Amino acid sequence: MKNFKYGVFIGCLLMSSCNKSEKTDGSAENNLTKKEMSAENAIFTKKEKSEVPAAPKSGETYLVKYKSTGAKGNEIWMTGLVTFPENYEQNKAGTHIISWAHGTTGISRNAAPSLFQKGGANEEALLMVAGYLDNWVQKGFIVVQPDYEGLGSEDSKGTYLNRQSLSNAVNDLVKTVKSQHQTSGKWVNIGWSQGGYAAISAADNAAEGLVGTISIAPGDSEIVTPELKAKGLKPEDILRMIEGDNLGFIPILLGGAINANDAVKADDFLSEKGKEMIQSADKMGLTELRKSYSQLSGKDMLKENPNTKHLQDYMDSQRLELAEPKGDVLVILGTEDVTVTGDTVRRLAENWKKRGLSVDFKEIKSADHRQSVPQSFDVQWDFVQKVLK
After folding, report:
1. CA distance 85 to 247
2. Which parts form a coiled-coil structure per UniProt (predicted)?
3. Are 188 and 212 in contact (CB under 8 A)?
4. Residues of the domain holding 81
5. pTM value > 0.85
6. What is the pLDDT of residues 220-250, one digit of tens each?
């Protein structure tokens, strides 16, 4: 089923890129130690534009390493990029923050957008996003980009679709910037695909000053939808149908679950080949996984008589439907998006509204999954101006 449509399950996966390893100069900024964990402040390292092509081209960009909390409740270092507009020094107290949560790059350290170099995997997507983010910097916003748990730092492994971890990645970077630099105190929370999921998660327990959230083509963690469960399908039934390039997503999804929750064990449901693929996901990014395993199918990943109960229980516990995003929320979806299921995203927004949450839904005509980011900028800008009033 090479055209298998994942809907909620893998709605957030087709984005961004993995990349080359970060160059190490032996400094504390590039070699995190337990001693540094006790430091009171985050580490801000100024970067030349050529060093961080995933950052907006305008303004001044820093690599930030900051304290946060992982999926298992452990204190860890996370990394991200922060770009200040050119007029920041003249208008510190009036400068607002845009937080950008990126789409799927992988769960390995090298999959961090902050480590991406030109010529690396999925360059087109990352540079597209950098151009989009440059619009916000030119409008005078500070733009912050968290890498997520396990990406950019060796403190822990990537956990992928975990609401608490992604929420912490977003909120703690915003808190770090606000604690170190003067701003207006207000921030807008934006994300795409996996990042759309992250943005909603962050809005559930937001850092002070959040004025609005934009979730573009959000994915979700649910492997088996309620409709399919009613027909008796289990995760293994869905996973067996996946093949070709799409299979590269699955080690990220399953590896993230295994890394995030001790009850999810590879031995319960993975074959030896499946375990190898999960180990590869801890080293490779999305594009590398797709190239390496495109000749296989989900059947190759699973053992005979797999037990996926703990996997399904964990993934169901991370559903966006369980989130309660605070404040004004705008959900955006392209009409030509075949990576996420439009009906599912619409239903999610409708259910939030029925629960009394302030959620609006906008479709972008003729936009596919990737195009939904730049082509919706005017809609986003209208929303941002409204919530900042």
Report:
1. 40
2. none
3. yes
4. 34-221+324-388
5. yes
6. 999 998 889 999 999 999 999 999 988 999 9
